[in-house]
């Protein structure tokens, strides 16, 4: 029986599409630079501020590629800020992290009726959660989900920036399963990445659903993988799976 559903975030719950990272970085740099100046922090010139943050970000990004673990934006910002002499309150650090993410948050959209779909799943008695590979700090992602009106649907949110591992490492799926309180065999995972989401969940005994996205166009999926174009298809699919299990029992 399917008793819980775990979702990937980017290109599954939220659609970002192919983004202009340079444009988004500059927009975030402008927002954060202006905020730090308004707080009286020693930011220097805007050009210097951009280059310093860009270099730190690129170094940590490539290190994450090599190590297989994500960094936390908040920790990186505090590292940069401490060296620069920033003195901020915890709330100001959190707001700074959000301002870096805000331009990207405006790109991320929900497909129509997502809230209604999530509500239908909870009415079926299903527990809902998120597993996401990300270096965006948890408070920023939670704020975005809250703005979209869907945060409260997810009792469990597992972000890789808070761990020493990320998908497809089986440990992150096991952490989510433990937190949501269900065995792996009773969990359905919905994602867009064949290698990180689908193959990994099939390997550890979860039921896998691939959501159509540009990230998986033309890619082969493991046998038995369910495919959807829209999240709104999930209630019927899960209803059919559980109905078949009831008949067999």
Structure notes:
This protein has 9 helices and 6 strands. The chain is of the alpha/beta class. The longest helix has 22 residues, at 46-67. The radius of gyration is 20 Å and the shape is elongated. The mean pLDDT is 96.
As residue ranges, the low-confidence spans are none
- Which CATH architecture of the largest domain is right? 3-Layer(aba) Sandwich
CATH class of the largest domain: Alpha Beta
CATH topology group of the largest domain: Rossmann fold
Query: Over all CA atoms, what is the radius of gyration?
Result: 20 Å
Number of structural domains: 2
| Helix and strand element order | EHHHHHEHEHEHEEH
| CATH homology superfamily of the largest domain | HAD superfamily/HAD-like
Largest β sheet strand count, sense and barrel closure:
6 strands, parallel
Q: What is the SS-derived class?
A: alpha/beta
Number of strands: 6
Distance between the termini: 10 Å
Overall shape: it is elongated
Number of helices: 9
Question: In percent terms, what proportion of residues is strand?
Answer: 5-15%
Helicity level: 40-55%
Side-by-side strand order of the widest sheet: 3-2-1-4-5-6
- Overall mean pLDDT stands at 96
Which tags fit this structure?
single chain, Rossmann fold, 2 domains, 50% helix, 11% strand
């Amino acid at each position: 029986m399917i008793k819980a559903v775990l979702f990937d975030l980017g290109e599954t719950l939220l659609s970002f599409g192919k983004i202009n990272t340079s444009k988004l970085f500059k927009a975030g740099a402008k927002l954060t630079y202006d905020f730090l100046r308004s707080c009286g922090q020693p930011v220097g010139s805007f050009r210097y501020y951009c280059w310093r943050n860009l270099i730190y970000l690129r170094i940590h990004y490539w290190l994450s590629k090599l190590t297989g673990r994500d960094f936390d934006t908040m920790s990186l910002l505090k590292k940069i800020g401490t060296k620069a002499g920033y003195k901020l309150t915890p709330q100001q650090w959190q707001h700074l992290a959000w301002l870096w993410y805000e331009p990207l948050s405006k790109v991320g959209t929900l497909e129509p009726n997502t809230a209604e779909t999530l509500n239908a799943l909870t009415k079926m008695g299903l527990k809902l959660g998120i597993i996401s590979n990300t270096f965006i700090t948890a408070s920023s992602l939670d704020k975005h989900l809250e703005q979209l009106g869907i945060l409260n649907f997810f009792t469990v949110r597992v972000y890789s920036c808070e761990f020493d591992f990320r998908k497809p490492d089986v440990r992150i799926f096991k952490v989510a399963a433990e937190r949501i309180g269900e065995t792996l065999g009773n969990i359905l995972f919905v994602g867009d990445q064949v290698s990180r989401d689908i193959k990994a969940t099939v390997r550890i005994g979860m039921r896998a659903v691939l959501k159509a996205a540009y990230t998986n166009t033309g890619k082969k999926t493991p046998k038995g993988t369910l495919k959807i174009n829209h999240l709104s298809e999930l209630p019927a699919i899960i209803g059919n799976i559980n109905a078949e299990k009831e008949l067999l029992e």
